[in-house]
Amino acid sequence: MSKLNISKYLANLFLWALCITWIIPVIFGISTSFRTQSEIVQSGFRLFPAEWRLENYVTILGNTSTAPIMRWLFNSVFIASLHTFLVIVVISLTGYGYARMKFKGRDTLFFTLLGISFFPGVVNIIPSYKIIDIFGWVNTSLAMIIPGLAGMGNIFLVRQFLKGIPHELDESARVDGAGEFRIYASIILPLIKPVLIVCGLFSFVGSWNDFLWPVIVYTDVDKMPITAGLLLLQDIYGNYRMIGQLMGSAIIAIIPTLLLFAFAQKYFIQSINLNSGIKG
After folding, report:
1. What pLDDT is stored for residue 1 in this prediction?
2. CA 79 to CA 207: how far, in whole Å?
3. What's the sign of the alpha-carbon dihedral 196, 198, 201, 205?
4. CA–CA gap between residue 273 and residue 264 (Å, rounded)
């Protein structure tokens, strides 16, 4: 057996081990949501339930007062979708400005902001809360949608992607009388679609999975996203008397992101190649 075959074998073995390590807890969580409470506390570890039951999901979906999970799910979809759309608009415009437009202090400003972004996000929690409190956004969707739109990591990706697109395209458009916005909308935007798809997917998942910030800015149960709602479910169900409902709620919470990646997988894989903006 050649060294190349051995390397492939070891790589496949490692990937299978990693896959099993990740998937077994997910399978156990799904199966637990279909167990009765008596089986959960008495049977010990068993990967699959002795009898598949829907009682936990019936209880979850029927609770519209103390734990309106479907309302939380709708809130999360609305917040994450609008946040992602605005992120794409902001980072595409900002990346275009840093990569294509010339102004005094452009690179200094960019790298200064990039350096500041390396500080842990928790450092900004108190100032960010103070700002949204001044604007009156506490306990509203704007507190989740607006902060983080101009993430420097996303802007950096767009800027680097744009550096691989020839400037001759811009110059030809200017000769034909196109302005900056026309160049951005008609020429640049279609070419940077791959990197925008990557940033959009990561922004959606990041907004969906955000936990600490929504717990801080929301107090109204009906306005909470799913992540903040799950914290309430831990108080309601987290005493091992209703662990099946807690697991069922967690499974419901991950369904939208699973569907997103299932439908967007092809585009995501194509978008990994950040050199795909220019063909030929």
Report:
1. 55
2. 8
3. negative
4. 15
Please name the amino acid found at residue 200.
G
Structure tokens at 61: 């979906």
What is the distance between the alpha carbons of residues 188 and 182, in angstroms, rounded to a whole number?
A: 9
pLDDT in tens, 77-108: 999 999 999 999 999 999 998 988 888 888 89
Q: Count Cα neighbours of 273 within 13 Å in the Cβ-side half-sphere.
A: 10
CA distances to 29, 119, 224 from 214, rounded to whole Å, are: 24, 20, 7
Q: Under a CB-based contact definition with an 8 Å cutoff, are residues 75 and 225 in contact? A: yes
This prediction has a pTM of: 0.83
Angle, vertex CA 52, rays to CA 49 and CA 58, nearest 5: 125
Q: Are 204 and 81 in contact (CB under 8 A)?
A: yes
pLDDT-derived band at 28 (thresholds 50, 70, 90) equals confident
DSSP per-residue letters across the chain: --HHHHHHHHHHHHHHHHHHHHHHHHHHHHHHTTS-HHHHHHS-S-SS-SS---HHHHHHHH--SS--HHHHHHHHHHHHHHHHHHHHHHHHHHHHHHHH---TTHHHHHHHHHHHTTS-GGGGHHHHHHHHHHHT-TTSTHHHHSTTTT-HHHHHHHHHHHHTS-THHHHHHHHTT--HHHHIIIIIHHHTHHHHHHHHHHHHHHHHH--HHHHHH---GGG--HHHHHHHHHHHHTTTTSHHHHHHHHHHHHHHHHHHHHHHHHHHHHHH-TTTTS--
- d(CA 105, CA 165) in angstroms, rounded, equals 22
Residues 179 and 68: beta-carbon distance below 8 Å = no
Beta carbons within 10 angstroms of residue 7's beta carbon: 10
Taking the C-alpha atoms of residue 93 and residue 232, their distance in angstroms, rounded to an integer, is 39
